[in-house]
Every structure is written in C-alpha cells, then in structure tokens.
C-alpha cells in the first residue's frame, strides 16, 4: 500500500537533490540521536554503580565552597508566611494543609553561594529566614551550614553523570574505531 504522500516524497527526492540531501540528513540525525541515547545517555544515567566508581576515581574534582542544606517555601501571601513562621518558631508541626497553601516547597538540598538568589538573600545560619523576591514571599529553612570541602556523590551527581556519559562516549567511539575503518 503506497500513500500519495510517499509517492510525492519519492518523486521530490528523485528530482530535487537538495531535498534528497535534507531528508537523508534528517534520517541520519534521528538515527544518530537514537544510537547515542541507547549507547551513551541511557547507560550513563542508569548505571549508578558506574557513576559511583567514576565519582570515587575523580573525587578530588568535586570540591565545594561554603554551602547550606536548606529548603524554600514560596507564597504570595505575606500574612500566611508570617503565620507559618510563627508556628514553626513555636516548634508546632506544619500540617499537610499548611504545606498545600504554598505555591512551592523545595526539598532539602545543598546550596552553594550563587546557586539560588533567595538562599543568597538570607543569613547563612541555622533556622528560618524570610525574604521577598519577584513579588513572592519566601521562607528559607536552613538545617545546617557546611564548610568548604569535598562534595558528596549525591551533591555532585549531575556533574558526575554528565562526565561519566562523556567517558562512556569516548570509550564507545574508541571501540568503534578499532572495529571499523573510518572513511
């Protein structure tokens, strides 16, 4: 079964060299993307054992300056933020209803200087700190302050995965060059 579009495409490729080259380039691009996804990107993202080994072998590269372990609560309601701040200061538990009223709540994570403008606006001390940014009221909960030093594998994870994928790609290309002659 041949569709009219397929017949027209075949005719255009026979009669128009530029179109034929464009179609070939498109197909090769899709094929290249699929191969890279299978051989490099997915392998690097899924192989947590390989990521850990890569991190351990290159640990000295992953250094951090001062950082805080914090999360950020964001709302547009200043009164609500004040109520939550007061409640937390009294060590009352925040309810699920309280948390749902925020526009966003980030998970606890490490922040270095310059990584987040809201975290940079507050004092880097354990506790709750209020800030205002872009018309939103922010509450920053700092759990701990960490001095400069070695990043954990989890803190360096995004960089580790990226660099590990580059290493996988390099090794894969070397193996292809050994198997096949490059023309």
What does this 3D model show about the protein?
It is a single chain. By secondary structure, the protein is of the alpha+beta class. About 55% of the residues lie in helices and about 20% in strands. The chain has 7 helices and 7 strands. The chain has helices spanning about 5-15, 15-45, 50-55, 80-90, 95-100, 115-120, 155-180, and strands spanning about 65, 65-75, 105, 110, 125-135, 135-145, 150. The strands form 2 sheets. Strands 2, 3, 4, 5 and 6 form a 5-stranded antiparallel sheet that branches. A two-stranded antiparallel ribbon has the order 1-7. The mean pLDDT is about 90.
What's the quick description here?
With 183 residues, the protein is of the alpha+beta class. It contains 7 helices and 7 strands.
């Amino acid at each position: 079964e041949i569709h009219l579009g397929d017949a027209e495409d075949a005719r255009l490729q026979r009669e128009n060299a530029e179109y034929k080259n464009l179609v070939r380039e498109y197909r090769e691009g899709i094929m290249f993307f699929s191969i890279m996804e299978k051989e490099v990107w997915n392998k690097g993202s899924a192989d947590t054992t390989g990521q850990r080994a890569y991190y351990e072998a290159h640990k000295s590269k992953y250094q951090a300056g001062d950082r805080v372990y914090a999360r950020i609560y964001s709302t547009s309601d200043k009164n609500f933020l004040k109520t939550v701040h007061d409640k937390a200061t009294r060590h009352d538990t925040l309810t699920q209803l309280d948390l749902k009223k925020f526009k966003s709540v980030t998970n606890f994570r490490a922040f270095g200087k310059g990584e987040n403008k809201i975290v940079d606006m507050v004092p880097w001390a354990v506790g709750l700190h209020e800030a205002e940014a872009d018309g939103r009221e922010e509450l920053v909960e700092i759990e701990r302050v960490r001095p400069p030093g070695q990043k954990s594998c989890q803190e360096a994870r995004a960089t580790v995965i990226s660099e590990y994928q580059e290493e996988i790609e390099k090794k894969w290309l070397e193996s292809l060059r050994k198997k096949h002659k490059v023309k």
